[in-house]
Design goal:
Layout (H helix, E strand, L loop, with lengths): L5 H19 L11 H23 L10 H6 L1 H17 L7 H17 L4 H4 L5
Helix pairs in contact: 2-4, 4-5
Amino acid sequence: MSQLKPMEQNSVVFLSSILLITIFIPTPAQGLCLGPEACGIIVGTWLSMLTVPLCIVAFLFTIWPKTRTWLQVFAFLPGLMAILTGYLMVIQGQRFDLIFIPLIHMAIMVLMIWLGRLENPWESNKVES
């Protein structure tokens, strides 16, 4: 087994201590969570900020025709987020004006399924002999 050099060991200790301090010390955003309505809106927003960039990265599968079908598999993520944000922000948070957030997730899901079902235009022009 390889041993960490003193400089690498110090950086690991420093990074882990920063992460532990960040996790266990309350942040100002936790003060916004006054009730289930506010907590639902905050959690829904944070989950959206996490999953929308992941879905945009998943759109790289549309470049190659063989990986386009994987978009249909990864479409569960925005579909799940549409359900979660719809419940957390619209139903639990009682904010119907935030309905656009689950609708954005639903549109991303529909776009991923549609792009995943596209066929390669060069393969459809081939005539079998």
